[in-house]
Amino acid sequence: MKILVVDDEKDVKTLFEQRFRKEIRSKTVDFVFAFSGKEALAYIDKLDHEAILILSDINMPGMSGLELLKEIKEKELTPKPIVMMISAYGDEQNYNTAKSLGADAFLTKPVDFKLLKEKLQLN
């Protein structure tokens, strides 16, 4: 499973690599990291009919995660990516906006990695 993690905080890469060490070693998951919405879109544009799961932070400078979500959902991608939004603020407005834009799930920070692995069916 290819997972694109989009977050402006660069230490998220180390965190995900630590928490998914076993799954990375066994090649169950393959992580790619983008540190901005624009970087994520550039990566997505290079995909060639690859299934992908996107985990995106909502609050990022420049293009927000919600703007990124809107652009992703408007693209004619096959297969359609699964998009999970992550926010430090579990507020109802972000949740409702993300859902209305087509988010498949909504997680809050700090990420509960046990719950995330369950959602990804890795447990």
Topology:
Blueprint: E1 2-6, H1 11-19, H2 21-25, E2 30-34, H3 37-46, E3 52-57, H4 65-74, E4 82-87, H5 92-100, E5 105-108, H6 113-119
Parallel strand pairs: 1-2, 1-3, 3-4, 4-5
Please, could you describe this protein's structure?
This protein has 123 residues and is of the alpha/beta class. Helices cover 41% and strands 21% of the residues. It contains 6 helices and 5 strands; from the N terminus they run βααβαβαβαβα. It has helices spanning 11-19, 21-25, 37-46, 65-74, 92-100, 113-119, and strands at residues 2-6, 30-34, 52-57, 82-87, 105-108. Strands 2-1-3-4-5 form a 5-stranded parallel sheet, with helices on both faces. It is globular. It starts with a strand and ends with a helix.
What gross morphology would you assign?
globular
Radius of gyration: 13 Å
Number of helices: 6
Strand arrangement in the largest pleated sheet: 2-1-3-4-5
Q: How would a textbook summarize the main sheet?
A: 5 strands, parallel
The count of strands amounts to 5
Structural class: alpha/beta
Distance between the termini: 14 Å
> What share of the residues does DSSP label as strand, in percent?
15-25%
Q: Order of helices and strands, N to C? A: EHHEHEHEHEH
Q: Mean of the pLDDT scores? A: 93
Helix content: 40-55%
